[in-house]
Amino acid sequence: MSRYNPxxxxxxxxxxxxxxxxxxxxxxxKTETGILFRTYAYKGEDRKYAVYVPxxxxxxxxxxxxxxxxxxxxxxxxxxxxxxxxxxxxxxxNSEKWPFIILIPQKPVASANWEAYDDMIMGMMDVEExxxxxxxxxxxxxxxxxxxxxxxxxxxxxxxxWAAIAPICGYGDPTKVGxxxxxxxxxxxxxxxxxxxxxxQSKAFxxxxxxxxxxxxxxxxxxxxxxxWDNAYRNEKLWDWFLEHKREQ
Length: 249
Hints:
Order of helices and strands: HEEEHEHEHEEHEHH
Number of helices: 7
Strand order of the largest sheet: 1-2-4-3-5-6
Structural class: alpha/beta
Number of strands: 8
Strand content: 15-25%
Radius of gyration: 23 Å
Distance between the termini: 76 Å
């Protein structure tokens, strides 16, 4: 009759666990892809936002990143509707053309401009640069309407950060951007029949940059109203244009 030996049992269990741990994982964990919803602690409050990760994301290589600033209609605190208009749906419709990590913050109120949340945008970028293998020489900024204004202003506030910007139906004070953005690759867009933001606004911004010695360009759409972003994001090969530009180290 054998006697129970607890030390022998422990040794046998350890041997079994060691052999199991040594086996290769059959299904190693994968990075989540698609539009992901996140939360960022900002000034004592949780701010919800979204990030798009391409289905073929590979953490062993560096990826460019776009920051997309939405318009006034998508303001709020739900953290989701800013992904329903403009760049995000265009990317989902043609995902193979957009090999970018895309940060999609949400501005809580329409009464404040995007530059009031500059530090929030920068903080969210820092988070995503830790979570993903981002090429910091390939950071791009774009947005529509209020986000077009934000693209001009946040772009001018960080001229050494962005590799290129693409404001759509933006507005504001052109005198604030000419000198800061004179070395920035810029492609602006506007509908010629826009009755919300006068297309002369985009023309004035581009002129200010050109007068400062820059090379900004503007594409306008005859007969198109405020929604010039679907044309810009879906038809203009903006994805290729972004990738042509890389900021020097």
